[in-house]
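REVIEWER CHECKLIST
Item 1: Sequence provided? yes
Item 2: Single chain? yes
Item 3: Sequence as submitted:
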Amino acid sequence: MIFLIFIFLLFILLGASFYIVEQQSCAIIERFGKFNRLARPGLNFKIPLIETLRSKISLRIHQLNVDVETKTKDNVFIRIVIAVQYKVLESKIYEAFYTLQDPLAQIKAFVFDLVRAQVPLMDLDDVFSRKDDIANAVKTELKTPMEDFGYEIIKALVTDIDPDANVKAAMNEINTAQRLRVAANEKGEAEKILKVKQAEAEAESCILHGKGVAGQRLAIIEGLSESVAGLKKQTGEDSAHVMDMVLLIQYIDTLKDIGANSKSSVVFVPHSPGNLASISEQLRETIFSAEALKKEEK
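Item 4: Structure as written out by the authors:
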């Protein structure tokens, strides 16, 4: 019976003597409460009742998210989340385990101190545009002291910047107002260009219309001049009688055209065929002036 108990206890002691350390981990072995050695990944052996597996430390990269509430230079309260990526240095496992009671609290204290010293020197817009500067400052601030404690700071990232809800609403309203102002300016410029182009088109149209009317009148005068010269040559009459004859023919043709059109809308003024003499005199002066101008141009 005693032998069986001895065998049973022996198996228990042998079972407690062997242990496994996972990959990317390291075990701390103490002998009578004092650090003895580090156990590497794989199957390991310890002296039962004398040596103790104190703890296992992971050598992987860990991430700690630190939520910091602070205010900016323009007195806006914001919440900033800093993600600190760190790992235990394989060459300083002893320091990492025995030096700091709570390494995560130590990292948080450094981050709180730095962010609350840097952000109050920046305006809210600068916090968004210079978040990489904040992250680099956190990494630089943590790197040296944490290496002394056995921790390597891999990277520090600003993962979130969250102002107060009222501040965000005000920023959105400002942005909307700015965009509306730009849109209104662009619309005004477009309407201005359209009106300028319409005015230029109307001006060119008036110029062309004036040239057309001038050309029409010149053609009429030249036609009358040729008619008067032809009739004068054939009849032998002087220019005054020939002009009266031409105007009388034009007068009769005009009355004929008006009478032939049932939809014509014409306003008549008091007149008589005798008034053609004064009209013919004016036309003669115009024709003679046009001929004189032609001679001067030649």
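Item 5: Key structural point noted by reviewer: The two ends are 153 Å apart (CA to CA).
Item 6: Recommendation: ____
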